[in-house]
Amino acid sequence: SVLLNSIMARDNCTNIDDLLKCYYLPVSYGIIFIVGLVGNITSIGIYMTKLRPWKSSSIIMVNLAFTDLLYVLSMPFLIFYYSNGDLWTLGAFMCHLVRFGFHLNLYGSILFLTCLAVFRYIVVIKPLMAAQVQQKIWGIIACSIVWILAAAEITPMLTMISHNETCADFASAIPWPLWWYSWLLTAIGFLLPLVVVFMCYIGIVKELAKGPHTNSPCRMRARRVTVLILVVFVVCFLPYHILRAWRIETRKAGNDTRIIVHAAYIISRPLAGFNTFFNLALYTLSGDKFRRAFISTFYWKCWLTKASSLINLAIINKADNDIPAV
Q: What pLDDT score does 214 carry?
């Protein structure tokens, strides 16, 4: 019966909403899964094996990569769900876990990027405090606070998502009387961090524009990181939050308006997940050490040199063993 329902659901993929769910979401989530899985496992491995001892920023980066990894591991379930015609067969617990993982990544990433903005602001504006801020303890404290805040922000959502052969997204499942929770989550979880990031990086850009060495590699890298983080907020997070709020507000609107807004909201959901791609770029732009470690891991000449050294060593050892004893 599950197979029959799946076939019937696929046959019903006729309007724009169903077409986007049947084809756009599985393809988009598949891309996020492949790139995110390989990229974040590689990044975590590089940080764990090649970039010790860690500074506070390194600890934040590792936690950001770990958050992204948890998110991409939920993608196969969503790919199966939407390919199956909105038919959820994995039970209520997995439904809540998958939706929880999506929002934990979303608001965890926002807070981790905000921490990086604040830390970089302190280092640039208050250079005398740079050594203290870069101590590991501050990274541990910041990440602990982020995990607690992100979990506190989205835990109420678990009581609002119902499971009845479907696993609807938050904006489609939230009861109408609780629409205020969506606005509160947007204000505290996104708008407030956006203001903090914007103010921090405006101050950083102004500070970096001073002095005779405005085109130094360090300052140029700081500008690139500034632009990248702002792009993540504007391209990935802003459309999703706007369209989510609009989707909730128009659930009782006329049919045409509701369909158009829902379609736009569906398109914005993978955009929010594409922040994992920008985060991978952030690791590379944040410092030369990560870039060198990455290149040393995958650069084929490095592997050939190591292999050649091992072969030569084996040949020398064999020659020594073949020399007859006198």
A: 60
Sign of the alpha-carbon torsion through 101, 107, 111, 112:
positive
- The pTM (predicted TM-score) of the whole model is 0.81
The whole domain housing 269 covers 2-286
Q: How much of the chain exceeds pLDDT 90, in percent? A: 25
301 domain residue, yes or no = no
Burial label for 240, CB within 10 Å (0-12, 13-18, 19+), is buried
Q: Nearest 5°: CA angle at 97, between 150 and 44?
A: 65
Look up residue 291 and give its two tokens. Answer: 């870039």
308: in domain:
no
Tens of pLDDT, residue by residue over 208-223, are: 777 655 666 656 666 7
> Taking a C-beta distance cutoff of 8 angstroms, is the pair 168, 98 a contact?
no
Q: Is 309 part of a structural domain of the chain?
A: no
Instruction: Mean pLDDT check: name the lowest of 64-78, 81-95, 110-124, 204-218.
Output: 204-218
Residue 154 lies in a domain: yes
Name, in order, each residue with C-beta under 8 angstroms of 38's C-beta and a sequence gap of 6 or more.
none
Q: Say how far apart CA 71 and CA 68 lie, in whole Å.
A: 5
Asked if 271 contacts 239 with a C-beta cutoff of 8 angstroms, the reply is: yes
Long-range contacts, 310-314 (Cβ 8 Å, 24+)? none
Count of domains observed in the chain: 1
Which domain CATH number covers 254? 1.20.1070.10
